[in-house]
Amino acid sequence: MATLLYRLGRFSFRNRGRVAAVWLLLLALVGVAAVMFLGPSSDKFSMPGTESQRALDSLAREFPQASGAVGTIVIAAPEGGKLDPAVVAPVVKEAAAVPGVVAAIDPFQARALSPDGRYALVQVQFKDNVDDITDAQREAYLKAGAAATGIQVEHGGEVLRAAPEVGGSEAIGVLIAAIVLIVTFGSLVAAGMTLLNALVGVGVGMAGLYALSGVVELTSVTPVLALMLGLAVGIDYSLFITSRYRQFLAEGLEREEAAGRATGTAGSAVVFAGATVVIALAGLFVAGIPFLTVMGLAAAGTVAVAVLVAVTLLPAILAYAGPRVLPRKQRVGQGVAKEGFGYTWGRLVSRLRVPILLVGIVGLGVLALPVQDLRLALPDAGTAAPGTPARAAYDLTSEGFGEGFNARLIAVVSAEDAAAVNAAAGQAAGLIQQVPGVLAVAPPQPNATGTTALLAIIPKEGPTAASTEAAVQAIRDKVATIAGAEISVTGATAVGIDVSDKLAEAMPVYLLLVVGLSVLLLMLVFRSILVPLKAALGFLLTIGSTFGITVAIFQQGHLAGLFGVEVPGPLVSFLPILLIGILFGLAMDYEVFLVSRMREDFVHGDTARQATINGMGHNARVVTAAALIMTSVFGGFVFMDDPIIKSMGFALALGVLVDAFVVRMTLVPAVMAMLGRAAWWLPKVLDRVLPDLDVEGEKLTHHLAVSAAPVPERIG
């Protein structure tokens, strides 16, 4: 592997014009394809095979007029007053005139009034589902009743769901990343070309993703996740190879040779680090959830592009940069090599390895304790940013009717004839009314043929309340005893519960998959038994502590205001499994970056302890910069209002900090110092069976030693 990448690096350096032209042409082509084939994103978290999804599919067939998107307009009279039908009627009329609306129901006819007569709910039924609602329709819907005087009108419902806007918040992370690169390299040219390289990779990856959106349904979160990872790993991979390139230049190698060796050694680590991220993200398919599989594959694709850019385009850019990639003092021969903090830290950790291990493991274990209270749910309007229409409607509905009216459920009753439907619906309504946590059940609403009827169910508490989840399960258990009809419970709240349950079931399987994968892959990379086991255990510490802190802030509300969390509540249901996949890959990035140098020096003759210190000395600065860059990129998304993006950005930024600084740069060298030569032990049977991937470049060094002198550098 190292020899192949060495040749690729020299080829790209020597043919810099052609390589750069190919990437720029590719960027232009996929950019045009993105514009031509761009498709709409979706906020539909469908879950094939679940009861709620089966019910929605049945509605689309049997009750199409009730299967489209739903909006709810909340109207309130001034405090102490009551609503007048004459004042409400124009609002209903305007809502009915919105393009695509099938019906807007007068609250006085539907009895959708609060007991004191001050509040009313106007149900607005659209023909199309939420993914097909246009921005023009949403704007027209928001204008319905907006000019009314003497009353408060707020607009809510699923019809307002739209893709989160990626504004300028992520630019904050990129700006911080640029500052970190300048400080790390001491060269504007080196920092600039590293960012340029990463941005080209992100551009190609994101454009390719949008080009595919016309044929593949993407959730609104998918492009944001791909952008997060593409930026973070793209900068980090370029940083790692550039740092090694500068080391070789400092040792006196010619630029083309330095580029080849940097790509062969550091590039090998990048390839395998990127491979772990790609495999972990692609492995999300084991959950059996289509939208999660697409998210994983999309993010994996951007990471794969980042790897390709790092080992091909970066050597070409290095050729263009010339000696300016070095700090000014080194270019004029005044730079003096000094042992950095990494060597001091490596010696300190090696000497105090036992107390450091005890404090680190116990500390991370304590931080993981809040995981015991982990609850999962899909976000609702109650977690939307204050001041948004959806949040205002949610709060006004809760004020006038109770939170349960924001968590309405639907029981779909189907049978072959109307008589069976009526009998089953009546029996079901009686049983459901007895369920704890249920406030009310509306009379059955049949379709035109009478073969399907809907029962609207109002829980006592909100969509993410534990009592609402328990009520859904209890309703399903009770109606399952009714013979003669098929009864399913659905609605946005039920869909969220089903998604959370299925993801919770898949999470242990996926965790076992990625941990087992890490052991196998690192065994191939490092030809060791104990190093992979240590890496996997460190990953579990990272995941546990990250989950614990995230639960404490986003769910339990500790320090919530500091991070802009207005309403603490359950974590987004797909966050844990997604976090496992992403952090696994990133954790293995740092593991490979640090330990590959330890392995390299050990293979080349250093003692195990000295190799550990060398690995820290050479790469601590780079890993520190990489971790700060990733943290800043992910942390930039914490400033977004969307609760899904905010929690993802926070958890990823926190996970990177914990894994890089506590686990990889502290616990890993402590364990390596404790194990000594035993860290690199591999049974002879496995040694013969496992392929030698040569990540540390031992074969490359031998190849260079026996081969002819390198081809002289071509100028121009």
How would you sum up this structure, described in words?
By secondary structure, the protein is α+β, with helices and mostly antiparallel strands. The protein has four domains: 1-42 and 168-332, Up-down Bundle (Multidrug efflux transporter AcrB transmembrane fold), CATH 1.20.1640.10; 64-160, Alpha-Beta Plaits (2-Layer Sandwich), CATH 3.30.70; 339-378 and 507-704, Multidrug efflux transporter AcrB transmembrane domain (Multidrug efflux transporter AcrB transmembrane fold), CATH 1.20.1640; 409-490, Alpha-Beta Plaits (2-Layer Sandwich). 62% of the residues lie in helices and 8% in strands. The chain is built from 24 helices and eleven strands. It has helices spanning 2-14, 16-37, 51-62, 85-96, 107-110, 135-143, 169-185, 188-212, 222-250, 255-282, 290-321, 328-331, 341-351, 353-367, 389-401, 418-433, 466-479, 492-526, 530-555, 575-603, 608-635, 643-675, 684-689, 698-706, and strands spanning 70-76, 101-105, 119-126, 152-157, 376-377, 409-414, 438-441, 445-446, 452-459, 486-490, 571-572. The strands form three sheets. Strands 6, 7, 8, 9 and 10 form a five-stranded antiparallel beta sheet that branches. A four-stranded antiparallel beta sheet has the order 2-3-1-4, sandwiched between helices. Strand 8 (445-446) and strand 9 form a beta hairpin. The longest helix is centred in the C-terminal third of the chain and has 35 residues, at 492-526.
